[in-house]
Automatic annotation (TrEMBL):
Name the record gives this protein: ASCH domain-containing protein
The organism's place on the tree of life at top rank: Bacteria
Family matches, as SMART domains: ASCH (SM01022)
Domain ASCH: 26-146
UniProt organism field: Lactobacillus helveticus CIRM-BIA 951
InterPro entries: ASCH_domain (IPR007374), DUF984 (IPR009326), PUA-like_sf (IPR015947)
One Pfam family cited in the UniProt record for this chain: ASCH
Amino acid sequence: MNKINDFCIDFCQKHHVDPEELEEVFAFGRNSHDADVLSDLVNRGIKTATTSVYDLDGAMPVVGKYAIVLNGKNEPVCVIQNKTVEIMPFKNVSAEHAYLEGEGDRSYEYWRKVHEKFFAQECEEDLDTTFTENTEVVCETFEKVD
């Protein structure tokens, strides 16, 4: 945790950001391999969007807030800042948003296949619900800051 705390302090001092503006510390995906691959895409500026299942009980991302992205070893990789946040049914996510997620061949077909599987597992295991095309998701775009 000291690496994360030091990273946070350094970032806040370097960018004159109040630590309260750091919304969260997280890793993308459900395992360390996914976290490594996705954090690398973010760090290289390829991944500039993400989608998650909307959880009424969870915290909503906020435009303008910062987050520390971790790799598969729970080490800080970079900081991102939320630019847009939208809630919509899964079936309404655009091909443009899928492309911005930067994964695979960046096609809508690839994105949809991977995310349907991911969200079905998440809904079943974590949210005790069933994933459908009408399940609401949170679509975020972000920018790598540091």
